[in-house]
Amino acid sequence: MTQLSVNVNKLATLRNSRGKNNPDVLKTTLDIISYGAQGITMHPRPDGRHIRREDVYQIAKAIDVELNIEGYPDKNFLEMVKEVKPAQCTLVPDPPHVLTSNAGWAVAKNLQLLQETIANLHARGIRTSIFIDPENFSAEDMQALPLTKTDRVELYTEHYAETYGTPHGEEVLNTYKKAAEIINKMGIDLNAGHDLDLNNLRHLIQVIPTIKEVSIGHALICDSLKYGLKETIARYLACLR
Fold this sequence. Notes:
It is built from eleven helices and eight strands. It is an alpha/beta fold. The protein starts with a strand and ends with a helix.
């Protein structure tokens, strides 16, 4: 079964909007785990606009499920990751000013950076994943991918989500499926994330059942306003079954 890792950034965004500790991000993260989530994802950014550095350390100490930390591999981010030692570190090519992750790595162009970063994380026993967009991934990037020595690739699923249910949707999904098959043949495992929700998640997993883990935050928190957090997580887990 594909594992559900809940991204708790949105909880921190809500908390930070009032400057106090409501919602309590740590407590709500523990609630999410108690409701069945198999992992927690955090994406701290340099400006601390949602998850803050102190959140990362507190949550890492408190949880007993898999922790995935996402971010751009600059010096400060990597120092924090090496101290926390999460189960997984997902490398994204975000510049500091972007609202959310909106592109995948140009692997061939950034090969040296990715190789050095992944080797550094592997030396500390941290599994790695790199964010790629199957629709903007060249043959050169695909050839360079195994040279990174990454353990996993996270499929950036925004375009799949945007086209789901449209006449163009299956064509887009077929691009994802073909990329997934090639990547799996390289011995690299798959994750997926971005704009996945209760409408489109099940179909993605049916078509690409080798996806090990999905990371979902924004849609899941929005759905919890309608269904409640416990019921929402149960619904996402049902999609993954």
